[in-house]
Structures are given as C-alpha cells and as structure tokens.
Amino acid sequence: MPEYSWPSREASTVIGKEHDRLDGVVKSTGAAKYTYDINLKNQLIAVAFGCPHAHCKITSLDVSGAEKTPGVVHVEILPQGEKGSEIEWEGELLAVVAAESEAAAREGVSKIKLTAEQLDVFADEANLAAAELA
After folding, report:
1. 102 DSSP assignment
2. Cβ proximity of 65 and 113 under 8 Å
3. Are 119 and 86 in contact (CB under 8 A)?
4. How far apart are CA 57 and CA 51, in angstroms?
5. How far is residue 117's CA from residue 1's CA, in Å, rounded to a whole number?
6. How do 56-62 and 72-77 pair as beta strands?
C-alpha cells in the first residue's frame, strides 16, 4: 500500500486555513434555495407507506382510500406489498402514493389499510441484554 502524508500546515493552501463563506449570509437569513424549495410545473410528490410490524404476512393491502383522496394521481403497490408476502422488518416499503402536494400524498398514505398476520419476532439476545443495561 502506498504511503501518503499530508502537506505541512504552512505548505497547505486549503486545509487548516480560514475561508470566506460566500453563502453564509444567504443560508443564515433563510434566503437560500434548496431542492425542497423548487416546485416545477406538473411536479408530483411521492410518500411511501412502510409496514408498521416487525414480522408479518400480508393478508391484504387496501389502497382504494388513497386512490380516492383529492390530489392523489397514482398509487403503486410494491412487490413486497402484495398479498401473501412475508415482511421481515418494520418500515419495509409496501406502497407509494404520488400526489400534487405533500399534504395530499400524506393524507393518501394515511388512508391505506393493511391487514396482516403477525408472526414471531426473533431478537438477538446480546442486543436485548445491551438494551437492558442502557
């Protein structure tokens, strides 16, 4: 493996030197534009629906309420959200709602109804012991 050494502080032109933050005023006043601030014409916002259970088998995933929500353009059930799928961790994405606004997308997600058979959850005993000590 090749050896590498950093230049001395005196010889460095960037590391360890003070620099003017040209964007400091814009960021500190809230005037800076971020990607979240940009809204394009016909832009959709997507919000995902994650499984609330740590281990389960999906009996049904009803997205009809989300599809009827005003502003929702499309609802997609992901392959792991199909009937009979076994979910192995909490938060696994099951469906995605695309809408004209974030509020409409979140409302659509809130109307998704999941029916699942909860299965045994397996935990590592070492992690459980560490959690009890904390």
Report:
1. H
2. yes
3. yes
4. 11
5. 53
6. unpaired
pLDDT, tens digit (0-9, with 9 covering 90-100), for 60-95: 999 999 999 999 999 999 999 999 999 999 999 999
- Measure Cα distances from 15 to 3, 9, 11, 119 in Å: 19, 7, 10, 54
pTM: 0.69
pLDDT tens digits for 21-50? Answer: 888 899 999 998 888 888 889 999 999 999
CA angle 12, 15, 18 (to 5 degrees): 105
38, 39, 40, 44 alpha-carbon torsion, rounded to 10°:
130
Q: Is residue 60 packed enough to be buried (19+ CB in 10 Å), middle (13-18) or exposed (0-12)?
A: exposed
Look at the chain and count its residues.
Answer: 134
